[in-house]
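--- STAGE predict ---
source: upstream dedup step, 1 unique chain passed
mode: sequence only
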Amino acid sequence: MEMRCYRRLLGISYKDHTTNEEVSRRIENAIGPHIDLLTIVRQRKLKWYGHTTRSSGLVKTIMQGLTYQELQDFLLVKCLFALLRSELVSDKIDQFLVYFSSFLNN
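--- STAGE serialize ---
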């Protein structure tokens, strides 16, 4: 993709049979030394990753994943709300809360 842009800037057609090395050399002569597009993208991705991991939010949680304890807590809470939505009697809900509160405290 990058080489195609360079060829268009220099007005070089693919029919001219000019090698990519020659195109790179002509670009360096025209604009001076430059950094590859993929290197720039990689650097910006790393900067963005560092920016997001310094904060505490959803993006950080998604990128770094959940710890085992966080995953356990999340699944227990999800299970609790699913059971609360279902048609359980109140005494069974109390038993459920007592049973799973021991897991949440560990």
